[in-house]
């Protein structure tokens, strides 16, 4: 190749995937993700992608190349975990599991969305339910259950409130509360840094 042509043609050589995020995928047993050929089948068949800006291939690619901004991107939370991408992937890559792992990494690093954080801390930990079914706001739902011959509340912590403490103990023992505390700390630190940047401007 002549020197003149080389001046205008620049080649980006990817010497392998070596990033902190990609390593977490490998550690979780998702090493098969390295066989991704970036064909776009996951994006092309994604039901969420048809209605939102979510592009599965882009999120996976960013994670594999070490682009840590993917952790703060709201798009990773738009996946409905329907597993359609996995069913269609020509390389049999568990794409949905990778998105779930990406979300887990985001939470570990304090990039959990405020509504998810509130649900985890203020509702799930306190009540033992992701969607509480008791209370006056759920009267129609309870009436509907009764119309089918069911008790107004399911046999969960709503009908066994003493079990809430057991749920909380379980969440503590698996590290859930520690994870949420760490996420809150990291979110707070990040918010302070942003405030300082705004003050400088």
Structure write-up:
The structure is a single chain. By secondary structure, the protein is mainly alpha-helical. It has eleven helices and no strands. It has helices spanning about 5-10, 20-25, 40-45, 45-50, 55-65, 85-90, 95-110, 115-125, 140-145, 165-175, 175-200. Helix 5 (about 55-65) packs across helix 7 (about 95-110) and helix 8 (about 115-125) runs antiparallel to helix 11. The termini are far apart.
Terminal CA distance reads 49 Å
Task: Let me know the average pLDDT.
Answer: 85
Quick one: CATH superfamily of the largest domain? Answer: Alpha-helical ferredoxin
The assigned structural class equals mainly alpha
Q: In terms of per-residue confidence, which ranges show pLDDT below 50 for 5 or more consecutive residues?
A: none
Give the total of domains. 2
Largest sheet: none
The assigned CATH architecture of the largest domain is: Orthogonal Bundle
| Fraction of residues in β-strands | under 5%
Could you say what the CATH topology of the largest domain is called?
A: Fumarate Reductase Iron-sulfur Protein, Chain B, domain 2
Task: Count the E strands.
Answer: 0
Main CATH class of the largest domain: Mainly Alpha
> What is the succession of H and E elements?
HHHHHHHHHHH
Helix percentage: 40-55%
Global shape: globular
Q: How large is the radius of gyration?
A: 22 Å
Number of helices: 11
């Amino acid at each position: 190749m002549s020197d003149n042509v080389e001046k205008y043609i620049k080649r980006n050589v990817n010497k392998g995937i070596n990033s902190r995020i990609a390593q977490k995928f490998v550690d979780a047993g998702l090493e098969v993700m390295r066989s991704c050929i970036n064909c776009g089948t996951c994006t092309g068949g994604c039901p969420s992608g048809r209605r939102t800006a979510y592009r599965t291939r882009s999120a996976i690619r960013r994670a594999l190349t070490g682009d840590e901004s993917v952790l703060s991107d709201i798009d990773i939370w738009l996946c409905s975990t329907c597993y359609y991408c996995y069913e269609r992937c020509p390389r049999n890559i568990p794409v949905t599991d990778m998105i779930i792992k990406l979300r887990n990494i985001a939470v570990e690093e304090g990039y959990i969305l405020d509504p998810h954080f509130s649900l985890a801390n203020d509702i799930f930990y306190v009540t033992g339910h992701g969607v509480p079914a008791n209370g006056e706001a759920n009267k129609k739902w309870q009436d509907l259950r009764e119309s089918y011959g069911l008790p107004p509340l399911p046999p969960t912590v709503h009908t066994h409130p003493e079990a809430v403490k057991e749920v909380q103990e379980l969440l503590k023992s698996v590290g859930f509360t520690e994870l949420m505390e760490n996420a809150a700390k990291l979110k707070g630190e990040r918010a302070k840094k942003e405030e300082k940047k705004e003050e400088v401007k």
